[in-house]
């Protein structure tokens, strides 16, 4: 009888050890799976961002090529215009309009109206410098250099924030003003300075949220998602977390990940049901079919 009890106790101990090992293995597998999912998600976002940047770079390169071609065509047109007046063969064929010339030159009326006159022909042939002296206008009208100058002047985004804001509120207001002026890089630098200097300030959640908005405004949706997630992680009960959840869902939708978009929009509606962001989130869910 004692031997039977001893055997039963041994079997029970082995069963308990087996259950504990199974639970531990299950927890390890779950943690490993969660890490792999997070890693895949970040890799997906990085790939999407690289594709977007490559598309932007290709578009910019194509614009520069088009501008250069337009510049060269204008210069060639100017050179051809000057050569037409000097050519004796072409000047003896009649009026310029008969040959389809396009020019901004303004020579004497006799040279154009009565091109068959011997004095006008000999005048054009004898004075070779005269046509070029009257053609400084085509190069000056070339639009390409002006376009390049405007584009260069349009992006003097200073990476320096306002130097002398007074206190936390002044620094925060400076970053917000830069954001409203579409100086997104400078605004982000200012908000980073605020978060480094005043990490526990009441406006820290707001500053971090607007930092995410600078990325979203620049269509850098991968960085926007990571920054908005930092808002919800550091300030889960703050009202800005509701707006951050909305923007996370919208950012995932922008990169084509509707599943994650629906997931975070549902989290917004459940955690902050009475917020203004939740109202917009419900509309997005209807649109996405979630």
From TrEMBL:
Name of the protein this chain belongs to: Tol-pal system protein YbgF
Whereabouts are the TPR repeats? 205-238
Give the coiled coil ranges.
none
Q: Which UniProt keywords apply?
A: Signal, TPR repeat
Q: Where is the signal peptide?
A: 1-20
**InterPro entries membership:** CpoB (IPR034706), CpoB_C (IPR014162), TPR-like_helical_dom_sf (IPR011990), TPR_rpt (IPR019734)
Task: Enumerate the PROSITE patterns for this protein.
Answer: PROKAR_LIPOPROTEIN (PS51257), TPR (PS50005)
Please tell me the species this chain comes from.
Pseudodesulfovibrio nedwellii
Which Pfam families does this UniProt record tie to the protein?
TPR_16, TPR_6
Q: Known Gene3D superfamilies for this protein? A: Tetratricopeptide repeat domain
